[in-house]
Specification:
Blueprint: H1 5-9, H2 13-17, E1 21-27, H3 33-44, E2 48-50, H4 51-61, H5 64-74, H6 81-92, E3 100-104, H7 110-121, E4 130-135, H8 138-146, E5 148-150, E6 157-159, H9 186-209, E7 213-217, H10 222-237
Parallel strand pairs: 1-3, 1-4, 2-3, 4-7
Antiparallel strand pairs: 5-6
C-alpha cells in the first residue's frame, strides 16, 4: 500500500518537506520495518540502506570487501564490524544520500552506533541519526510470524490467523499444500527475539539518552503506521 495524495496532504508541510537526514528504524523481527522503510522512501525520496543488501551486492560483484566477507561467511563466521562499516561508509558517499536515508539493520550494535555517530559528526553539514522503534505486542508478533505459510509453487504468502487460505492448508491459486519455513516456528522466533533484545537494547538506550529516539505503535494499517513515523521524525528534527 502507498500513500494517496489525500493522505500525503494530510501531513503538515513541515513533516513531509523537512530534511529527514539519517533515520534508523528499529523493531523486533516481524514488526514491519521493511514495509515501513519502503513507505518512507516514497514519502521523502531517500534511499533505504540495508546491510544485508550491501553485503549481498559486494559479494555478487566480487569487490575486495565482498571477497573478504564471502570468505568469512563460507567458513560460518560473522562478518566483522570493520567490513560492514566500510561498506556503509562507501554507500553513504553516493549522492542519493544527501538529504537522508533509511537505515535497516545498521547500526545493530553499540560499537556500530558509535562509529556512525563519529563519522557523521566529522561532516559539518551532516545531521545526526534519529532512531524510531516500531513496537507491536509480542502476542501479535507471534501470530504474524508463526502463522505464515507459503505456497511452494507460486510463493504466495498466507497467514492462518490474519490472511488464511479459503481451504485450510492449501493455496487458493495452485491448490498446493502450504509450507511453514523453519525459522517461522515459535521456538526459533523466541531465540531471534532474545538475540535482538540483547543486541538492540544498548543501541536504543544510546539514542534515547541523547534525545534522538522515539517509539511508535507499529500495529495498524501501513499508511497509519507510516504517518506516526513521519510525525516522530518531525518532532525529533525540530
Amino acid at each position: 500500500m502507498s500513500f494517496s495524495a489525500t493522505q500525503v496532504e494530510s501531513y503538515s508541510d513541515t513533516a513531509v518537506h523537512i530534511v529527514p537526514g539519517p533515520i534508523l528504524l528499529l523493531g523486533a523481527p516481524g514488526v514491519g520495518k521493511g514495509t515501513q522503510a519502503k513507505e518512507l522512501v516514497k514519502i521523502w525520496s531517500i534511499p533505504q540502506i540495508s546491510t544485508g543488501d550491501l553485503l549481498r551486492s559486494h559479494v555478487a560483484q566480487g569487490t575486495e570487501l565482498g571477497k573478504a566477507a564471502g570468505a568469512l561467511m563460507q567458513q560460518g563466521e560473522l562478518v566483522p564490524d570493520s567490513l560492514v562499516n566500510e561498506m556503509v561508509a562507501r554507500r553513504l558517499q553516493e549522492p542519493d544520500t544527501a538529504r537522508g536515508y533509511i537505515l535497516d539493520g545498521f547500526p545493530r550494535t553499540l560499537p556500530q552506533a558509535h562509529w556512525l555517530d563519529a563519522r557523521l559528526a566529522a561532516q559539518p553539514d551532516a545531521l545526526p541519526v534519529v532512531a524510531v522503534s516500531l513496537h507491536v505486542d509480542y502476542n501479535q508478533l507471534i501470530r504474524r510470524i508463526t502463522g505464515r505459510r507459503n505456497c511452494p509453487v507460486c510463493q504466495r504468502i498466507y497467514n492462518i490467523y490474519l490472511n488464511p487460505p479459503r481451504t485450510a492448508g492449501f493455496c487458493d491459486v495452485e491448490g498446493a499444500a502450504l509450507a511453514q519455513r523453519a525459522d517461522d516456528r515459535e521456538e526459533v522466533f523466541a531465540e531471534r527475539m532474545r538475540a535482538y533484545n540483547a543486541q538492540t537494547a544498548p543501541v536504543v538506550e544510546h539514542y534515547r539518552t541523547q534525545g534522538r529516539f522515539a517509539e511508535v505503535d507499529g500495529d495498524g494499517a501501513i499508511a497509519a503506521v507510516a504517518a506516526r513515523i513521519v510525525t516522530a521524525v518531525e518532532r525529533l528534527r525540530s
